[in-house]
Every structure is written in C-alpha cells, then in structure tokens.
Automatic annotation (TrEMBL):
Organism whose genome encodes this protein: Streptosporangium album
InterPro entries assigned to the protein according to its UniProt record, in alphabetical order: DegT/StrS_aminotransferase, PyrdxlP-dep_Trfase, PyrdxlP-dep_Trfase_major, PyrdxlP-dep_Trfase_small
Domain of life: Bacteria
Top-level EC class: transferase
Pfam family, one: DegT_DnrJ_EryC1
Protein name: Perosamine synthetase
EC number: 2.6.1.102
GO molecular function, one term: GDP-4-dehydro-6-deoxy-D-mannose-4-aminotransferase activity
Record key words, sorted: Aminotransferase, Pyridoxal phosphate, Transferase
Keyword Nucleotide-binding among record annotations: no
UniProt similarity note: Belongs to the DegT/DnrJ/EryC1 family.
Amino acid sequence: MLPYGRQSIDERDIEGVLGVLRGEWLTTGPAVGAFEEELAAWTGGVPCVSVTSGTAALHTAYAAAGVGPGDEVVTSPITFVATAATAAMLGARVVFADVEEDTANLDPAAVEAVVGPRTRAVTAVDYAGHPAEYDVLRKIASSVEAVVVGDAAHSVGSRYHDRPVGALADLTTFSFFPTKTITTAEGGAVATADVELLRRARRFRNHGLVRDPQELRDPDEGGWHQEVHAFGLNYRLPDVLCALGVSQLRRLGAFRERRARLVERYNKALQGLAGLRLPTRRPHADPAWHLYSVGVLGGRRREAYERMRAAGIGVQVNYLPAYWHPVFADMGYRRGMCPVAEEFYARQLSLPLFPDLTDSEQDRVVEALHAILG
C-alpha cells in the first residue's frame, strides 16, 4: 500500500542516533539543547522547548498560558482532536469557530463573533502546512486579552508574509510524528518569545521542578534539593530522538523543495479534472506542504477513497470535525455548528505526499484518480 505520508530516513539520521547510543546520555543530555537550537533556526530565533509529542506540545502551551476551569479556548474543528482535547482536559470550555472555505484555516470573522471576556486562547491550525491569518487573529485576541496559539503540526518551515512559523503566535506547537515534514519518531515542541511563557513551558515538561537556588522556598535544604511549585508532567524528549531531529532539521530545506515540486506536479496533472477541487495557496503564504488536500465534489469522496485504497493507494481523510467525536457530542456539542468545516470534511481527501514519493508513484496516483473521476 502506497502511504499518504511517510518518514524519510537516511544514513545521516542513523549515524546521528548511533552517536547518542554510543555516548553517555540517552536523555536530558546535550542533544536536547542541540535540537532546540536547530529548531530555533527555523522559527526566526524564537526559543523552543522540546516535548514528547505534538499533543504534549499543545498541553504544555495551554498550561503555560494558564488555561484552566472557567476559561474558553477558541479553535478550529478541522484538526486532529488533540488541539481541542488538551484544552478540555485542563478544564477549559472549547469554542469551535468555523473555517475559511479555501484554506480550511480558522476564519477570523468567525473567531471575532465568539470571543469574549472568558477567552484565554485563540488556537489557529495551519491546515496542510498553509499558515493561518495570524496578523488578523492576533488583533482579535488582543482585544479580549487572550493569547494566540499556533498549532503548527503541519507547518514547520512555512512562512507568512515572509515571517517564519514559530514567530507568528504567542505560543507555537510542532509535531514530529513520522508522517510530518520532519520526524523524531514521536516528538513535538513549543516555541515562544515570551520569557515567562518559556519558563512555564520548560518547567511543565519536567514535572514542574524548580532547581534554581534563587527561586527555591527552602534553599538551605541541601545540594540535592528541588521543589515543585506547580504541577507538571514528564514530557521530556530524550537525546536519542533529539539526535534524529537534529539530522532531520538539517534536511528540512530539501524536504520543503521536494514537497513543493510534488505539489506542483499534482497541480499540473490534476488541473481541470472534473469533480475535483485543488488546494489553495494565498500570495502571502509560503507553505511547507504537509498534505496534498483535494476536494472530491458531487458526493463522491467515499467512492474515491475506497477505490483508491482498493488500488493500493493509501489516501486519507483529514479530519473528522473535532466536535463530531462522541466525547464532545456527550458534552452537548452538535453537528451543524460549523457548516463550512462540515462541508469541507464531506469532500476532503489527502493524496500521498512525502519526500521519497517518486514521480512514477505520483503518476500512478494521478492516473487512478483520473480513472475514477474522469
């Protein structure tokens, strides 16, 4: 089965991991800092905190922002459920705002209609790698003294008005799952330029431990002493995975170029195919494409999905509107609340896209889709 996404691993990656395995540190060692510095080179110098997954990154970002009971977090329903679930697990009420028809990113007008005095965070999702409209969203969030969180699970290496993802929101979260643009096997990160938010994120990913003698409440207890002032979790990304991440980040430019080339080939080969809507790219955006997301019109998405899969082509649907999950339905969320998002979901199909996808494999995908829809 040709997958819709897959990691690209070469000898440099393997040697990087072996170097850690041959060394003294498997976790909490020098590769962690090296990875965070390498990632910061892609965020415009914004400091980064590595964690164990993209979900952990969202949890850490919300915790750093102080999200809790009585707060509201406004976000998109077109995302993996973790974007909303991690806010709900902290006790916040999730408010879903509709998306833009062309990009499937959070619609600023929909956000403006639902923010209020309880809004603690507005979380945009850079769907498929295309950055959300951060400048407008930040103005809206500022009007109610909320932070903007950028869920950049899809968009490491993307740019918006010539500014890098990671420098656009108050807090940005990344995912490094194998299907993403770069991978650490499992892993994620939080980027923020705010010194206090950064401090909170670093503590939260390490049980909330405080070790700085100037901040300890009982500094004379002994050299071994450490304290927890606020609860955190063990979200530390180990050196062995950070070493893989360092190697992968050094290939990110090449990954971006190959993905862009594949997107260009898809656009050319599928242009004009009846019943198919191609992805949008706005002039001010430079996406590091994570998904090649098309719209299958005329109610034929399921047919296309099943026939492509039967042909050995692993297309995927990204995503079920988050509030359709039973866990949200059981809390009273109802279908129909974000009609643009639901219409997008009804036609969405992701075609295979990853750096090692060959031209001949891509041609096979195109021919199969033409045979179904042509």
